[in-house]
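Postdoc handover notes: sequence design on the structure in folder B. Input tokens:
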């Protein structure tokens, strides 16, 4: 009963913060490893719907494990594997119900930083280090919205990158069909680092493609030509 009370307090705390920003949080009343589905609304005199939405898993505690500038929290590896395959972004939010404070972490971004052997091993849990600067406040909701937008753009980007490369390869072959020469085709994408999330400084991110080398990156829509 004590543990359940802490979890309820933690979810209530997170809901109150989202409600202040007019974000709509819907609870899952059975524990599927996700507590809330959150829909982002812009408050411009009236609630303006947006395409941004995400899931939240809330964990409550009465005392945080603080190490220097991070909060340590142990999580089941099975949960991370499951969350990495969910289509929407997932935020893990750790709440200190005693201090009425909370801290968030983008799960998919964390999973991408974890070596694959760690997630494929038989280990039961892994320790997350959540930056203290990721405190969940009204001001932090702007950063969360940017993160969610970036994750959604990132997911959509990977759906079309293969099409872009297929089209570009075909165009190159058509250009040089008289004398086929692999040296004239775009460089293998493995020669470049994996596409990252668009940075928050880019207001309207779009994908840019380099005809010469096949490299794909983010740029602002206003800079395209």
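Designed sequence:
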């Amino acid at each position: 009963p004590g543990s359940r009370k802490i979890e309820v307090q933690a979810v209530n705390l997170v809901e109150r913060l989202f409600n202040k920003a007019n974000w709509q949080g819907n609870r899952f009343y059975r524990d599927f490893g996700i507590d809330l589905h959150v829909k982002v609304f812009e408050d411009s005199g009236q609630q303006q719907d947006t395409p941004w939405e995400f899931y939240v898993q809330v964990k409550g505690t009465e005392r945080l494990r603080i190490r220097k500038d991070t909060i340590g929290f142990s999580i089941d590896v099975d949960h991370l594997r499951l969350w990495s395959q969910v289509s929407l972004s997932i935020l893990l939010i750790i709440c200190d119900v005693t201090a009425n404070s909370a801290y968030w972490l983008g799960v998919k971004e964390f999973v991408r930083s974890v070596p694959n052997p760690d997630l494929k091993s038989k280990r039961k849990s892994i320790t997350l280090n959540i930056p203290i600067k990721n405190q969940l406040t009204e001001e932090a909701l702007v950063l969360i919205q940017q993160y969610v937008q970036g994750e959604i753009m990132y997911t959509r980007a990977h759906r079309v990158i293969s099409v872009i490369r297929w089209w570009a390869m075909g165009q190159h072959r058509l250009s040089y069909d008289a004398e086929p020469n692999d040296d004239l085709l775009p460089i293998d994408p493995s020669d470049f680092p994996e596409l990252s999330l668009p940075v928050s400084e880019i207001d309207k991110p779009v994908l840019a493609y380099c005809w010469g080398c096949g490299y794909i990156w983010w740029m602002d829509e206003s800079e395209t030509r």
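Context for whoever picks this up: The beta strands are 24-27, 36-43, 47-61, 65-67, 70-76, 89-96, 101-106, 125-131, 205-209, 216-220. Don't rerun without checking with the PI first.
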